[in-house]
Design a protein that fits this description.
This protein is mostly helical. The chain has helices spanning about 5-15, 30-35, 40-55, 70-85, 90-105, 135-155, 155-170, 195-215, 215-230, 255-270, 275-290, 310-325, 330-345, 370-395, and strands spanning about 20, 65-70, 125, 130, 175, 185, 195, 245, 310, 345-350, 355, 355-360, 365.
C-alpha cells in the first residue's frame, strides 16, 4: 500500500476537478428545492436532511452546482503543505499557496471585523438558517489554520496577519453566551445562541496556537476561558455531547465531532501543558477508541450505532490517533489500521477518489469533494508527516 502515491493521486483528482464538487448539506443549492421550500423551516430542513441521507446522489438531477467549498480548500491546502514537509518538493508548497489565494478571495473581511469564511451553500439545520458564504466559527477556524500552517513553512508575515484578522472576527463578531464565571462559550454562527461544544474547542485551539506565535495575552485569555467551558461539559465517562444542553441536538457521541474535541485539546496541550488536562485527554481518547470504532477499525456512526461507516469518521480517526502518537507511539498503529480499512472499503483505486459511506447493505459510491476527498487527503498527508517524524526520531545520531 503506497500511501504517499494514493495521497498524490487523490489530490490530482481533486485538482483536475478544480477542487469543486458537491457538499453533504448543499440541498438548498438546488433551484428546484429552493423554490419548493421557500421560507419554510420544515421544508428547508427536511430537504437538507433527506439529500444528505440518500443512497444515491440526486444532486445532478436536482441541478445542484459543483462549487469550491472554503473549508475543503483549506483542507486541500494543508494536505499540500504536509506533503511539502514530507517530500521537500516545492510543487506542493506552491499548490497549497495557490489555494490560499483563492480563499482570500472568498473571505468576507470587508463586511466584518476580520477575515472570515462560510460554506459555499445555504444551510438549514434544526437551529438556524445560514445563507451561502455567511461566515461561521467552524469554517473560519479551519481556513485560518491553513494560513497558520503557511506561516509556519514560509515565515511570511502576510499569512500570520490573516490569522490575526480571523481572530478579530471571532472576538468581535460572534455571539458570546453566559456560561458562568471565568468561562466563555461562543456561538456557531452570527445569529444564534446554539452552544456547540466541538466548535468552541476548535476556537480555543486556534487562539492557543496564535498566542504561542504572537504572545498576545488576549488570545491566551480567550483560549483558556473557552477551554474551561469545554472541559466542564465532559460526561462522567469522559465524552462530550454535541451541544449543551444535550437534547438540543439529535447528535450524541458521534465519531468525527468527538475527534474534533480531542484534536483541539491535543493542540491546546502543546501550548498550555498540564497534568490534569492531559489526563482528561487520555481518558477521552480511550473512550473514542473503545466506543467509536468497530473491532476491524471501521468508524462507527455514533457510540451506539455502527452504521453507516462514514468517510469523515475514517479521516478523523487517522488524524486523531496520528496526533496522539506524540504521547503514545502505539496510537500510530491505530491510525494506520483505520487508513488500511478505508482504502480497502471506501477508495476507488482506478479513479483515485474516496466514497461517501459504507452501510450495512451497500456502499454509497459517490464523492462529496470536501466531505470525502479533502478530509482524506488531509488525513493521509498528516499521517505521512507524523510517520516521517517518528522515523526521524528512530535514526541513530552520531557525535564526534
Amino acid at each position: 500500500m503506497d500511501v504517499l502515491d494514493i495521497c498524490k493521486r487523490s489530490l490530482s483528482w481533486a485538482g483536475e476537478n478544480n477542487y469543486a464538487g458537491y457538499s453533504k448539506f448543499d440541498a438548498l443549492s438546488s433551484p428546484l428545492l429552493k423554490w419548493m421550500s421557500g421560507r419554510s423551516f420544515f421544508l428547508r430542513a427536511g430537504f437538507t436532511f433527506a439529500l444528505s441521507r440518500m443512497p444515491i446522489n440526486l444532486r445532478p438531477v436536482l441541478l445542484v452546482k459543483k462549487n469550491q467549498n472554503p473549508k475543503g480548500l483549506a483542507l486541500f491546502a494543508r494536505a499540500y503543505f504536509n506533503l511539502f514537509e514530507v517530500t521537500g518538493e516545492k510543487f506542493f508548497k506552491t499548490e497549497g499557496l495557490k489555494l490560499l489565494d483563492i480563499l482570500l478571495g472568498l473571505s468576507r473581511v470587508s463586511q466584518y471585523s476580520g477575515h472570515c469564511w462560510g460554506y459555499d451553500h445555504p444551510w438549514q439545520n434544526s437551529e438556524f438558517f445560514i445563507p451561502a458564504y455567511e461566515p461561521n466559527t467552524v469554517v473560519t477556524c479551519n481556513a485560518a489554520s491553513a494560513f497558520m500552517q503557511a506561516y509556519d513553512i514560509t515565515g511570511e508575515e502576510q499569512y500570520l496577519e490573516v490569522c490575526r484578522s480571523a481572530a478579530e472576527f471571532i472576538i468581535a463578531d460572534l455571539n458570546y453566551i453566559d456560561v458562568g464565571e471565568n468561562m466563555l462559550c461562543l456561538s456557531y454562527d452570527l445569529h444564534s445562541s446554539w452552544k456547540v461544544i466541538n466548535v468552541n474547542a476548535m476556537a480555543s485551539s486556534f487562539m492557543a496556537k496564535l498566542y504561542k506565535i504572537t504572545g498576545d495575552a488576549r488570545y491566551e485569555r480567550r483560549s483558556q476561558s473557552i477551554m474551561r467551558w469545554v472541559i466542564s461539559q465532559r460526561t462522567p465517562y469522559e465524552a462530550w455531547y454535541y451541544t449543551d444542553p444535550p437534547e438540543a441536538s439529535s447528535i450524541t457521541h458521534d465519531n468525527y465531532h468527538t475527534g474534533f474535541v480531542l484534536d483541539s485539546i491535543f493542540d491546546y496541550l502543546t501550548v498550555f501543558p498540564g497534568t490534569d488536562m492531559k489526563k482528561v485527554y487520555m481518558n477521552a481518547l480511550e473512550f473514542y477508541k473503545r466506543e467509536l470504532f468497530l473491532p476491524n477499525w471501521a468508524p462507527k456512526w455514533m457510540y451506539d450505532r455502527d452504521y453507516p461507516n462514514d468517510i469523515h469518521g475514517c479521516a478523523q480517526g487517522v488524524i486523531t490517533f496520528a496526533k496522539a502518537s506524540a504521547i503514545d507511539a502505539s496510537y500510530l498503529d491505530c491510525s494506520r489500521d483505520i487508513l488500511e480499512w478505508t482504502i480497502r472499503n471506501l477508495y476507488s483505486a482506478s479513479e483515485s477518489r474516496f466514497y461517501y459511506q459504507k452501510g450495512r447493505l451497500g456502499t454509497k459510491k459517490f464523492t462529496l469533494m470536501r466531505w470525502c476527498q479533502a478530509w482524506m487527503c488531509y488525513a493521509i498527508s498528516l499521517f505521512l508527516r507524523i510517520e516521517a517524524d517518528e522515523k526521524d526520531k528512530e535514526k541513530p545520531t552520531f557525535t564526534s
